[in-house]
Amino acid sequence: MFGPPGHLYVYRSYGMHWCANAVCGPAGTAGAVLVRALAPVAGVEMMRAARMDRRDRDLASGPGRLCQALGIDGSYDGADIVAGRGGVAIAMDGTAPPVAAANGPRVGISAAVDWPWRWWVEGEPCVSRARTSGTRTPGAITTGHRTPGSERR
Q1: pLDDT of 22 higher than 90
Q2: How far is Cα 4 from Cα 151, in angstroms, rounded to an integer?
Q3: I need a labelling partner for 11 at 20 to 30 A (CA). Which of 23, 35, 77, 144 fits?
Q4: Burial status of residue 146 (CB atoms within 10 A of its CB: 0-12, 13-18, 19 or more)
Q5: CA angle at residue 11 from 29 to 45, to 5 degrees?
């Protein structure tokens, strides 16, 4: 997470699930975005084989499931996701940005849970679900939002 921007930071969560973050801050400063879910559009059969799921929406609907479906493990840590070096890339495919994006509180953490740093496409069935007793309430898209202390992150 302290590495150069445009690289993948891969780690184990709870010692059992791989998680992938896209590093987006300057080198030496912690700054990354956890890739929580994706909607499968290609390679679905390979994802099904890796995950043994019956429903497409469950193949990569969570950070651990996503890594398992894509075969991402610790060997991908540090991969250049902009240039595609290291076997994985995040790239524009010509699809327009979502119109119905929403944001709200983060999940699966114990600090700063109310900060609206979790983003999803409203109505997308592949969005990873919060496993809390509360409900997920979409908020307005916030641009340039500053939460106290966020300038250090």
Answers
A1: yes
A2: 18
A3: 144
A4: exposed
A5: 125
